[in-house]
Amino acid sequence: MDDVEKVIAGVFDERADSYDDKPFHHDLTTAIAEFIDLSAVSRVVDLATGTGLMLRALDARTPGLALTGVDISERMLAIAAHALPHASWVLASAASTGLPDASTDLVTCVTALHLMPDKDGVLGECRRLLAPNGRLVTATFSEGGRRPSPSRYLGSAVDHDSFSTQEALRQTMGASGFALARHQRWEDATHIMGLAEFLPH
């Protein structure tokens, strides 16, 4: 874990106990679970899983999936493990999970790519983890809605621009070998999000 990740881990350790209190987090992960095509999915890895809300939403929709959540916040993972004890929880960077090659059908990464200092490393890790015909699904903050500001993360670099439009997503993800397959706009009273599915190419 590098210095920026240590700072971010500390921030989310502090936020962990109240993270699940915000309706936005629940509403968004429910929408993503509905967006995802699970017809050929039996194994899921959720990067920057936090308290595991994404995996909880997928488990509620399709029980029996093999679920693994990865995060750098110990406190977030402790809450996730309590809420969904039959999933696997890994304390690791999203750029270096330690999980086996080609070991999952679906990687998800929700509201986190803008925070990751090594996005190329993270996307390379996604490609490594995906089995043939696997997919990556992301949710990123779009232009026009409320977005977390850099100051909330103690000055760490925050990059929304690389993910805030469909064209930006095509360029950013394309540079790491992913093609945009589907995109859907989701919004609530204050946020505008882009839900996107990518295929390795």
Description:
- The chain has 201 residues and is α/β, with parallel strands linked by helices.
- The protein has one domain (3-34, 46-200): Vaccinia Virus protein VP39 (Rossmann fold), CATH 3.40.50.
- It has 6 helices and 7 strands; from the N terminus they run H-H-E-H-E-H-E-E-H-E-H-E-E.
- It has helices spanning 3-19, 23-35, 53-61, 74-83, 119-129, 166-174, and strands spanning 43-47, 66-71, 88-91, 104-110, 130-141, 178-187, 192-200.
- Strands 3-2-1-4-5-7-6 form a 7-stranded mixed sheet, sandwiched between helices.
- Strand 4, helix 5 (119-129) and strand 5 form a beta-alpha-beta unit.
- The chain is globular and about 35 Å long.
- The model has no long low-confidence stretch (mean pLDDT 93).
